[in-house]
Design goal:
The chain is mainly beta. The protein is built from 3 helices and 25 strands. Helix content is 5%, strand content 44%. A hairpin with a 4-residue loop joins strand 6 and strand 7. The radius of gyration is 25 Å and the shape is globular.
């Protein structure tokens, strides 16, 4: 029995299924959303596992052909061990080894700011794609310049408030999805130069409810009017308590504790200092690439309210700017 595998990226799977399949005169088909391993069967079978098709050819010389819902043709010929690829297909060699995995090149990029939730509200009506305005149920406690993050299904949108008029928000970037009144709208500060010395302040990055993300990099940036070195935090004195990065996914897992600039390096971050700009502001950029440092990604799952938090327990208001961002991709 020869085993072949064809990967059809997500864009070819309009309904996450296959429209037709033919194996000579008989084709038994089983469609599953998630199966750890191909199911073993004695008859020719096709198993759709998310974006994967496993093909079992029981008789040499017979072939299998099928097409995805967009009409892209995938042909497997058991004699020649050849694959005729559609624009959406990628062949594995007949021995089962993966020649190329292109998931990272075709899935949606994630690049979002950590933010504080000063208000959680909902759209008053379905949002219009390409519009710069939205009306929300409440604007209590928010300000121009705050970050707006909208979550619904597997989608997320983030922008900055340019203007508030009544309950209508004007945004710095156009809306890219028709979010409904069921969408969650989180609004709050993205500049984390905040005072957490009295009560800790939690900034966070969340995952869309029906999405999973692989996060490969966390970035911390700071601007300050004072020179920076390893003994300071940005340009201010070393922190008493420090900032804490942690992963919250039903349990809490601390990722880093940093009290000064050299502490970023001790936690696997690459550090770059910027000389003073025209305004006399010095800069620091700390970047941790988890794939390079640990060989892993941080997987977050919106179905279990997964998030990465940054906890502030000192007074950071003397910093001109402090931001934290995450970078990664959506998991198909």
């Amino acid at each position: 029995m020869a085993t072949y595998e064809v990967i059809i990226p997500k864009e070819a799977w309009t309904l996450a299924t296959v429209s037709n399949c033919s194996f000579q005169t008989n084709c038994n088909m089983h469609v599953a959303e998630s199966v750890a391993e191909p199911i073993s069967m004695d008859v020719p079978d096709k198993i759709a596992i998310r974006a994967k098709i496993y093909t079992y050819a029981a008789t040499t010389g017979q072939g299998l052909w099928c097409w995805a819902s967009d009409g892209g043709i995938v042909t497997i010929d058991d004699d020649s061990k050849g694959i005729t690829e559609s624009p959406f297909s990628q062949a594995l060699n007949p021995g089962g080894g993966l020649d190329v995995n292109i998931q990272d090149q075709v899935t949606e990029e994630i690049n979002l700011y950590f933010h504080v939730d000063e208000l959680q509200t909902n759209p008053s009506s379905t949002l219009v794609v390409d519009s710069y305005t939205m009306t929300v149920d409440s604007v209590a406690g928010i300000s121009e310049g705050d970050a707006v993050t909208i979550y619904e299904s597997n989608r997320v949108y983030q922008s900055i408030i340019a203007d508030i008029t009544g309950t209508t928000l004007t945004l710095a970037s156009s809306i890219d999805y028709a979010f409904t009144t069921a969408a969650a709208v989180h609004i709050g500060a993205w500049n984390l130069n905040l005072n957490g010395s009295g009560a800790p302040i939690i900034a966070h990055f969340e995952t869309a409810p029906l999405a999973k993300y692989d996060i490969y990099r966390i970035n911390i940036t700071m601007l300050d009017g004072e020179k920076m070195d390893g003994s300071t935090f940005g340009g201010i004195d070393q922190l008493t308590n420090g900032i804490v990065l942690r992963h919250k996914n039903g349990i809490l897992k601390n990722l880093a504790l940093v009290v000064n600039n050299i502490g970023f390096a001790e936690q696997g971050f690459n550090i770059d200092y910027d000389p003073a700009d025209k305004k006399g502001e010095y800069g620091l950029r700390a970047k941790k690439n988890y794939k390079e440092v640990s060989g892993i990604a941080i997987r977050t799952d919106g179905a279990v309210d997964d998030e990465i938090q940054l906890i502030i327990r000192d007074n950071l208001t003397s910093l001109t700017l402090m931001t934290a961002t995450v970078q990664g991709h959506v998991v198909d």
